[in-house]
């Protein structure tokens, strides 16, 4: 079994068309067909079945594809690790970024790192918390910023950088807008504008409401915090958002109030895989980011 055969098999499975796969692989269709036939002969099973002009994986072909994807991912990781060991200052780091974290805050940290390590590259992946955790476990990304930070995960190590308030965001003309702070129970009759189900920040908001005896009525859902702010400023409801996401970006048509009962918090930090080591280039980034947030904490950020 040759590595070339596995790449051909993966591409054909992805495109479900032999000719299209050949074009993307920059080889003749006959070469792709021959390699797939050789692979099927070696394995003693049929990997594809024809359906009209397309071809589809057989049940055993789907099983084999999962293993091929894992194998190619590990080989690619091994190649990158060797390159990192040869020169950690020229590697590429695959970093996850949760949609609920402030891009501005993380961009400052990454920009500071790039200034000190200009030849290290980044591949940035946005996603929800659970999705990013899965990608780190599976090795699709090297490490990820995360919130909340898991503290007892069997497959992940979590490093908490800071804890921040989750605050209430109200329209400027709301009857509670002139208060200095509020109790969450005061919002029980409001229409909430929250992130979609499955988002950890939404879960924090819902759990906080349930803690004081009510389930929030959700009038709008949106995955973009900027859009949530726009909906609140239009008077379509209220929201609960992390303080850092509103810093220097609070719209004049809205008011942000601290919630004092209960005190709603979330942790922010970085996760790495528990059962495998990160590479030298990732270590350079990890150490820098850890020190970066320690310095901010030292000066009362």
TrEMBL record:
GO molecular function: DNA binding; DNA-binding transcription factor activity
Keywords: DNA-binding, Transcription, Transcription regulation
A Pfam family that the UniProt record links to this protein: HTH_1
SUPFAM superfamilies from the UniProt entry: Periplasmic binding protein-like II, Winged helix' DNA-binding domain
Domain of life the protein comes from: Bacteria
Listed InterPro entries: LysR_HTH_N (IPR000847), LysR_subst-bd (IPR005119), WH-like_DNA-bd_sf (IPR036388), WH_DNA-bd_sf (IPR036390)
Domain HTH lysR-type stretches: 1-58
Stated family: Belongs to the LysR transcriptional regulatory family.
Cellular component annotations (GO), alphabetically ordered: protein-DNA complex
The name this protein goes by in its record: LysR family transcriptional regulator
Species whose genome carries this gene: Allobacillus salarius
């Amino acid at each position: 079994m040759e590595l070339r055969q596995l790449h051909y098999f993966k591409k054909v499975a992805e495109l479900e068309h032999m000719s299209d796969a050949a074009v993307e692989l920059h080889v003749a269709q006959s070469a792709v067909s021959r390699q797939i036939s050789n692979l099927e002969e070696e394995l003693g099973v049929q990997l594809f079945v024809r359906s009209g002009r397309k071809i589809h994986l057989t049940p055993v072909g789907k099983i084999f594809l999962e293993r091929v994807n894992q194998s190619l991912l590990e080989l690619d990781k091994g190649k990158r690790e060797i390159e990192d060991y040869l020169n950690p200052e020229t590697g590429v780091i695959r970093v996850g970024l949760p949609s609920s974290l402030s891009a501005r805050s993380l961009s400052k940290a990454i920009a500071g790192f790039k200034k000190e390590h200009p030849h290290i590259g980044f591949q940035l992946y946005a996603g929800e918390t659970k999705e990013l955790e899965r990608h780190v476990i599976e090795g699709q990304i090297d490490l990820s910023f995360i919130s909340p930070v898991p503290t007892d995960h069997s497959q992940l190590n979590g490093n908490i950088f800071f804890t921040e308030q989750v605050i209430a965001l109200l329209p400027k003309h709301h009857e509670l807008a002139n208060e200095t702070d509020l109790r969450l129970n005061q919002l029980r009759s409001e229409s909430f504008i929250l992130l979609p189900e499955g988002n950890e920040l939404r879960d924090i908001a819902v759990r906080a409401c349930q803690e004081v005896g009510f389930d929030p009525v959700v009038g709008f859902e949106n995955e973009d915090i900027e859009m949530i702010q726009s909906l609140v400023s239009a008077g379509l409801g209220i929201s609960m958002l992390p303080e850092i996401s509103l810093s220097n970006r609070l719209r004049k048509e809205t008011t942000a109030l601290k919630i004092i009962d209960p005190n709603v918090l979330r942790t922010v930090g970085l996760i790495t895989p528990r059962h495998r080591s990160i590479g030298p280039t990732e270590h350079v980034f990890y150490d820098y980011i850890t020190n970066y947030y320690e310095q901010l904490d030292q000066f009362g950020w």
